Amino acid sequence: MTTVLDILDKGTAYLEKRGIEEARRNMQMLVAHQLGCSRVELYVRFDHPIDDSDLEPLRIALKKRGEGIPIQHLLGTVYFRNHEFKTDARGLIPRPETEELAEWLAKHVTLSEGGRILDMGCGSGVLGLSLAADFPKAEVTLADVSPDALALARENAEFTELSVSFLQSDLFSEIPEDQSFDLIVANLPYVPDAEELAPEVRHDPALALFGGADGMDLIRRFIPEAAKRLAPGGWLALEIGHDQSVETEKLLHAASLTDVLTLKDLSGIPRFPIAKRGSV
Ligand code: GLN
């Protein structure tokens, strides 16, 4: 008879041998997912036997995790801010840093009734959909160049029951210059093309990660275009790579935006440039 504790111990040892970080936590997540319970609930089930019908899918998931498939893809969902979202290879796996940006915006931005929000490069949709939940009276648009990402974002809108609109667009190619937004957010691809990636990150779509030789190609195109579409008093907020804040701030100033600052993430890295368009 194989018990829950046996499988946790064996699976953890298997993942450790394959160099997977946080092996025990990963194994707990896989077992809890298979048994349909929480990680905490596993503790009171340590001596319960595991059915063969649960063992086989667990073996398959464990093997995949050992090969570096991200835990999020195996579980199929992630928590981001206040909701659970679907995640798979169609979009970047939501990162905890990005949650910090969503939280800061919810706290510091006020929009008047009917304010307009744009999430450019929405990927799975977590940022724009979280903002839709935080600003229920705003009209929110999620845009991405990737039809796959947009399909995933649409599923997430249904999954979270949040109401937003979608647009396939290569940055602002489909958004007229006279259309204005009160808040534009963008977590664009910003990784330099030649950067070595951790095995898990290699499962994110390359389109969502890479931004040219220094990672700044998309950000350089985006900022002047976004500035043109900000309503007076509107906000622009980005997520960028660890060494991109100096150049990004220059671009924001060059686009005549004001109140430019870059917020640090929890690791102290300047991560989220914020700017505003003057109100007159
Ligand atoms: N933060 C991600 C990483 O370092 C990159 C996300 C992005 O390019 N927007 O893997």
TrEMBL record:
CDD domains for this protein: AdoMet_MTases
Query: Signal sequence: where?
Result: none
GO biological process: any one? methylation
Q: Where is the Methyltransferase small domain?
A: 103-193
As for what it does, the entry says: Methylates the class 1 translation termination release factors RF1/PrfA and RF2/PrfB on the glutamine residue of the universally conserved GGQ motif.
Documented EC number(s): 2.1.1.297
Membership in a protein family: Belongs to the protein N5-glutamine methyltransferase family. PrmC subfamily.
Tagged with keyword Transmembrane helix: no
Which keywords label this protein? Methyltransferase, S-adenosyl-L-methionine, Transferase
Under the heading Pfam families, the entry gives:
MTS (PF05175), PrmC_N (PF17827)
GO molecular function, a single term: peptide chain release factor N(5)-glutamine methyltransferase activity
> What is the protein named?
Release factor glutamine methyltransferase
Q: Which HAMAP family match?
A: RF_methyltr_PrmC
By its UniProt entry, which InterPro entries does this protein fall under?
Answer: HemK-like, N5-glutamine_MTase, PrmC_N, RF_methyltr_PrmC, SAM-dependent_MTases_sf, Small_mtfrase_dom
Please state every residue range assigned to the domain named Release factor glutamine methyltransferase N-terminal.
6-76
The record lists the membrane-crossing segments as none
The record's catalysed reaction(s) read: L-glutaminyl-[peptide chain release factor] + S-adenosyl-L-methionine = N(5)-methyl-L-glutaminyl-[peptide chain release factor] + S-adenosyl-L-homocysteine + H(+)
Q: Where does S-adenosyl-L-methionine bind?
A: G121, C122, G123, S124, G125, D144, N187
